What we know:
Layout: E1 2-5, E2 14-19, H1 39-42, H2 44-47, E3 51-56, H3 68-85, H4 89-92, E4 95-101, H5 103-113, H6 119-125, E5 128-134, H7 148-161, E6 164-170, H8 189-192, E7 200-204, H9 223-249
Parallel strand pairs: 2-3, 2-4, 4-5, 5-6, 6-7
Antiparallel strand pairs: 1-3
Helix pairs in contact: 3-5, 3-6, 5-7
Amino acid sequence: IFFSQQIFSGLMETSVVCVHGLNGHAQRSFTHLKTNVYWPRDLLPDQVPTARVLTYGYDASSRYTAIGESVLDIALQLINTLKDVRRQDDERDRDLLFVCHSLGGIIVKKAILLHHSCENAKAVQRSIIGVFFMGTPHCGSSLANIGYDISREFAIVASELGLHLTSFYELNPFSSPFWMVPKKIIVEKESAILGLPHEEILAVHGHHGELCKFESAEDPNFRPVWIRIEHFSAQAREKLQALELDSEGMKPPSYNLTKD
């Protein structure tokens, strides 16, 4: 299921796809509990109006996603759905940026790796410029022990594609609603980062669930997210302008012929 937000009437420069994590939801995972701010809809379009913002939802129950096969199924669904919503020429060529919370990062990594065997994945992969990993358990976590098996292969492919990778990790422990359960960090820093060259690593003052929820546009945790998305959008703008100049340069010269 996709939610799509677009307030800019001109040419969109970037597509931002938000993918939630384990036991998550396409909207609730990105909605602040107190202010009810759903930042893909309420905040990001104001900061980066030339970005098309989408969120992807899937069955994220821990029972369903506990095995690697289901991660593969969800990754295939993501790729096929993206291809379906990017039918026009300008959509297919538009730069694509993923924003992933927790298990969503594992699914996106798997989707990117599908280019070896899936034609739809190849078509989408050519547009991917970067991934934001928000508390993704690359080496497993206290809630899920999947992800490490594909991290090595992903590191190779990410380098080949020149992907821009940004990893966010939590600083605060998560408090369970059950008083007898102790507070704990859900995804430790060592698991939340890939340890790759040129990977940008950012600490977030919040627990695991707060990594992708922002109170308002002034939320200090939202600033590094939208600023980096705006940076990618600006790069896409420069690319589009360069392509327009190239296409104009390839046009045959026009002659104004007059009769003597």
